[in-house]
Design a protein that fits this description.
Elements (H helix, E strand, L loop, with lengths): L1 E3 L3 E6 L3 H12 L4 E5 L15 H6 L12 E4 L7 E2 L15 H4 L9 H4 L1 H9 L17 H15 L26 H12 L5 E2 L9 E2 L5 E2 L25 H7 L3 E5 L1 E9 L2 E9 L5 E11 L3 H10 L26 E5 L9 E9 L18 E8 L18 H10 L3 E8 L8 E9 L5 E6 L4 H20 L4 E4 L43 E3 L14 H21 L5
Parallel strand pairs: 1-12, 2-3, 2-12, 3-9, 4-18, 12-20
Antiparallel strand pairs: 4-5, 6-14, 7-8, 10-11, 11-12, 13-16, 13-19, 14-15, 15-16, 17-18
Helix pairs in contact: 1-8, 1-12, 6-12
Length: about 575
């Protein structure tokens, strides 16, 4: 038996950064909001004195239970897609806060070039810089139009940083808090890159350099540099996350309610509007319908796309014909870089998730691509995130992979190894996409999401170029041995790479090539909004969270305006 609940103004599917922002802004505007979170409640107190690398970093305490729902994966359409049975290439968060709880805190604004990449690339290099197999397109919004929303997210999160990057877009205000500590390791990177003629700056960080109270009154503490950020919740309340900022802000209004253990399986639609969502209680398996005037999909990009597919909202992308937009433009990232082995010991075991220095000299279109067979680039960073002993086991080339020599080299190099890493942009390709799997289903009987993805020639060329630049920096830093990253071939679902998946529900100015408009309002249902990194038309050279946060504030404005006036927002 299905229980139909009382209708609300807004229902969100997922309570992480995007769900929290939508809830806070809409609840402050007087709208009644319900957040459906399929995981459980948690808070800072749950992470007190739990520096347990095995529990969190190896056994994935905070991540999605793949025995209930997973994805299937293949490199191309000729292969059989098989389920992902363990977390590998990316880590899907679950429970209150989602991936916003276990993230590192590196908080970037995508470059102005990113938002108008097709226009700017063609203006400078011509229409044939990339082949027609790459589905390059503008986002339907410019950096300048999105800048106020970037500013709002950074002030909500209290981001620590410095406005010293000559390549990024113009800012309306400085960062809310000063940059983090410039450690001796980062100073070494700064000296080397400066001597090479580059422009280093401190990484924008949600691990705050000092205590901060945001405009909504939420208090965020100062980072203790314990080195337990990525894959961990912060025991100090110093890594800005949804459950210490936007979620309490929403709850304090009295207009917001969170329902935990609520797994949404369908967005319900009648005519050209949605009417609510259908969900299961994950503990009792009771079935509910939550009616709403507005539905906002605020879960991870894979689930947002899956919900639209199973609900038959939008046209599924078909790589054979090029028709359809849903599932199109899936993009990931590449990770070029280089390691260096040194004689002296360094405090590599200390740090924070977003403690680092970066150069953007080889990101976006900040360098000439005229004679190169790729576009875009990568941010190049030296991060000091805290090397933990299980996952950090650097050894020089030609070291045996086991035995006494392996153990000796591991101990010797644990605090004598540094890495310069790049986050390489990923361009959408016609053969990289998401669809529903025709064989496998989740625990609720819903088809699994199927991912078809492989690295492209663009990826391989960019990876090789940036790896060479990283090796040059490491050489300048004085490493006795420099090891560049191996060339990439076929993408594999293991090992871990980044949780920076994008695309599938892309935004744009035209329903012919996008799923949502620039308020993240669905073209086919005016009271349905879809928000997340799935809106990215391609992936850039940064972590996505800062840009997702800005889009969430843009979306919240759209939801509020729609609730007052109705109709299309563009």
């Amino acid at each position: 038996m299905v229980t139909t609940l009382d209708k609300v103004d807004v229902v969100t599917v997922g309570v992480g950064w995007t769900g929290g922002i939508i809830a806070a802004e809409c609840a402050k505007a007087g709208l009644k909001v319900v957040g459906l979170e399929r995981g459980r409640e948690r808070s800072t107190s749950d992470f007190s004195v739990v520096h347990d690398e095995y529990r969190y970093a190896i056994r994935y305490e905070l991540m999605q239970d793949l025995s209930k729902e997973t994805i299937t994966f293949r490199n191309n359409r000729q292969q059989r897609a098989l389920p992902m049975r363990q977390m590998g290439s990316f880590l899907l968060g679950e429970n209150l806060g989602g991936a916003g709880t276990h993230w590192n805190g590196q908080t970037w604004r995508f470059l102005p070039y990113d938002f108008q990449i097709k226009t700017m690339t063609e203006q400078k290099y011509g229409a044939n810089k990339l082949s027609a197999d790459y589905l390059l397109q503008d986002w339907g919004i410019t950096y300048d139009e999105l800048e106020p929303y970037f500013d709002k997210f950074e002030k909500t999160a209290g981001i620590s940083g410095e406005d010293k990057n000559p390549f990024w877009g113009k800012r309306s205000a400085d960062y809310p808090t000063p940059p983090m500590k410039k450690t001796p390791i980062l100073q070494r990177f700064e000296t080397a890159t400066s001597d090479l003629g580059y422009s280093p700056f401190m990484m924008p960080s949600a691990n705050l350099s000092e205590p901060y109270t945001n405009p909504d009154g939420a208090a965020i503490n100062a980072c203790q540099y314990c080195g337990f950020c990525e894959r961990f919740g912060c025991e100090y309340g110093a890594k800005t996350s949804p459950e210490i900022t936007v979620v309490p802000t929403a709850l304090e209004t009295g207009n917001y309610e969170i329902k935990f253990n609520a797994n949404v399986v369908e967005v319900m639609k009648e005519g050209d509007k949605v009417t609510g969502v259908r969900y299961f209680d994950t503990v009792t398996f009771e079935e509910f319908i939550q009616p709403a005037e507005v539905v906002v999909l605020t879960s991870y990009i894979l689930n947002n796309a899956k919900l639209l597919m199973v609900s038959e909202i939008g046209e599924q992308y078909d790589p054979a014909t090029g028709r359809g937009t849903l599932g199109k433009n899936y993009a990931y990232q590449i990770l070029p870089g280089a390691s260096g082995f040194f004689d002296e010991k360094m405090n590599t075991f200390m740090g924070a998730g977003a403690l680092g220095m970066t150069i953007d000299d080889f990101n976006g279109d900040n360098f000439d691509h005229g004679d190169l067979d790729f576009i875009h680039g990568a941010s190049l960073s030296m991060t000091q995130t805290g090397n933990r002993p299980i996952l950090s086991n650097p050894i020089p080339p030609d070291t045996p992979s086991w035995g006494a020599d392996f153990k000796k080299a591991s101990i010797e190099n644990y605090t004598r190894t540094l890495g310069v890493g790049g986050q390489g942009a990923s361009m959408p390709h016609k053969e990289n996409y998401m669809a529903l799997d025709s064989t496998y289903k989740d625990i609720y009987g819903v088809p699994l999401l199927q991912l078809t993805y492989n690295f492209t020639e663009q990826d391989k060329a960019l990876h090789a170029y940036i790896t060479e630049k990283a090796a040059g920096i490491m050489q300048e830093m004085g490493a006795k041995t420099v090891v560049g990253g191996s060339p990439i071939s076929d993408y594999d679902i293991v090992p871990y790479q980044t949780t920076h998946n994008t695309g599938g529900t892309i935004m744009g100015a035209d329903p012919a090539n996008s799923v949502v408009n620039n308020y993240l309002q669905h073209w086919d249902a005016e009271n349905l909004f879809v928000i997340g990194a799935g809106n990215f038309a391609h992936n850039g050279g940064y972590n996505p969270t800062g840009t997702v946060g800005a889009l969430a504030y843009r979306c919240a404005e759209g939801v509020i305006n729609y609730s007052k006036n109705g109709g299309s927002l563009v």
